[in-house]
Amino acid sequence: MPQPAPMQPTDRLGRPLHDLRLSVIEACNFRCGYCMPADRVPAGHGFDAAGRMDFDEIETLVRAFARLGLRKLRLTGGEPLLRRDLPLLVARLARIPGIVELALTTNGSLLGRHARALRDAGLHRLTVSLDALEPARFRALSGGRGDVADVLAGIEAAQAAGFERLKLNCVVQRGVNEDQVLLLVERFRRSGHVLRFIEYMDVGTCNGWRKDRVVPSAELRARIHARWPLHALDRHYRGEVAERHAFADGAGEIGFVSSVSAPFCGDCHRARVAADGAFYSCLFAGAGRPLRPLIAQGEDRVVEELMMLWTRRADRYSELRGAAPQAPRQRVEMFLVGG
Fold first, then answer.
1. How far is residue 165's CA from residue 186's CA, in Å, rounded to a whole number?
2. Could you state, in order of their start, the residue ranges of all structural domains in the chain?
3. In 36-189, which residue ranges form alpha helices assigned H by DSSP?
4. Residues near 3 by beta carbon (within 8 Å), at least 6 away in sequence
5. In terms of pLDDT, which residue wins out, 30 or 40?
6. Dihedral of the alpha carbons of 220, 74, 282, 315, in degrees to the nearest 10
7. Class for domain 19-337, per CATH?
8. What's the rounded Cα separation, in Å, for the pair 83 and 77?
9. What is the CA 243 to chain-centroid distance, rounded?
10. pLDDT for 61-117, tens place per residue?
11. pTM of the model
């Protein structure tokens, strides 16, 4: 039986709803300072299963989003690979009509154990966070909990499982890990993977963000270009967050995400839902709309609510931040909505 054409709501700035970043768990086995610093987040945070959506709730939610034009679904955390039986959820979501790309973002430390099962379940793409190559630096950046060898082994396992083109994300902070940039480029520029450098963002309120620790993408691009010449590539689609560049010698592609120095709110078509079912219309939102009570009422009720939430959306925090200083305010923490 043919599926009905999806509805296509737009927000108050004319932006459609195409992408969803869905957290499946708040817990993480790392304590990266820009996301979940150990001195601000208790060790056992996020492991209470009663506080998060079950697989039935998640499937109902995603089916509702798909009816509104959702095409790309990314599973996040916390660390999503801590969620028990995650491949079973992936298999259910992969069968939902309309979802053309199903991806997952992970710190990579557990990927070696799960890559094959995720691929077999129908996961299309993987993004791995990798902020340093030097083992001591990596351990420090992960709050003393991570081993870069586990992450590198996870990347190899993902390749062996059939994930041919991973995205590798590095959040760059001045005076913290900017010296790792060229090491990372040298390691991965002929690997077939896409290394992406992300400006340090003021997400949440617990990471001690300061603008002087932002390394603008233009500076990083110039530094890399001086060693390995680059040329710009066109975006794959409107709303793609990374500026794409290719190595002139044919050694692959690299990306830069410039939310601070060159905001891209005008093309943002992403929604976010936390593991507890709260909807957030922006990475920098101050509060979420709980959806679990509505999910219990069925898919049609969720569609109705999402339509209302999206058509009222007018968020453009990063553009406003760049235009003029803003008064401090509460913002959702990154580990709740997956960055």
1. 17
2. 19-337
3. 55-67, 86-94, 111-121, 135-141, 148-161, 181-188
4. 97, 98
5. 30
6. 90
7. alpha beta
8. 9
9. 16
10. 999 999 999 999 999 999 999 999 999 999 999 999 999 999 999 999 999 999 999
11. 0.93
